[in-house]
Design brief:
Shape: elongated
Number of strands: 4
Structural class: alpha+beta
Distance between the termini: 78 Å
Number of domains: 1
Bound molecules: iron/sulfur cluster
Length: 142
């Protein structure tokens, strides 16, 4: 496809695309199961120990983000396989476009040890609540 035609198509999808450095082509994002155990958090910490990764939590859903440019984005920030692009690329719409920095996850981690601290706080809080519930139940029985 000629660059001129690509420009027209991209402009039609979003007026911002022609002025954007192809932000949405510079990372992958993968759904993660909700971490439930210390081992789950430890495994996610291991993901974060690798460069250019982040873990986001948004509306109770967890995601792994890897900042890594698509090999099909050219130096003019144009897709070189536009006709054959992937479903994830086709599904990306203006409403979830992050060009103006609208994306603000509820939580974001890049440091595995901050994720561990978060997990420890979460587990201590759950243990405290469980203890309180048991105490209240035993009071009700008395
Ligand atoms: S981040 Fe948004 S504006 Fe930029 S190329 Fe992707 S869809 Fe277009
Ligand atoms: S295939 Fe094209 S649209 Fe999809 S991420 Fe790569 S450069 Fe972007």
């Amino acid at each position: 496809m000629s660059t001129k035609n690509q420009d027209k198509i991209i402009e039609k999808i979003s007026g911002n695309c022609s002025r954007c450095p192809g932000n949405c082509c510079r990372y992958i994002i993968v759904d993660l199961p909700t971490p439930r155990s210390r081992l789950d958090f430890d495994n996610y910490g291991w993901y974060l120990a690798h460069e250019n990764t982040a873990i986001y939590m948004e509306e109770k859903k967890w995601y792994l983000v890897v900042d890594n440019k698509c090999r099909y984005l050219d130096e003019k920030n144009r897709c070189t396989v536009y006709d054959k692009r992937f479903q994830a690329c086709r599904d990306h719409t203006d409403s979830d476009c992050e060009v103006d920095g609208r994306f603000e996850p509820d939580m974001a981690f890049r440091d595995p040890f901050k994720l561990q601290d978060f997990a420890e706080k979460k587990f201590s809080e759950s243990a405290r609540k469980r203890k309180l519930t048991l105490k209240n139940k035993s009071k009700a029985i008395d």
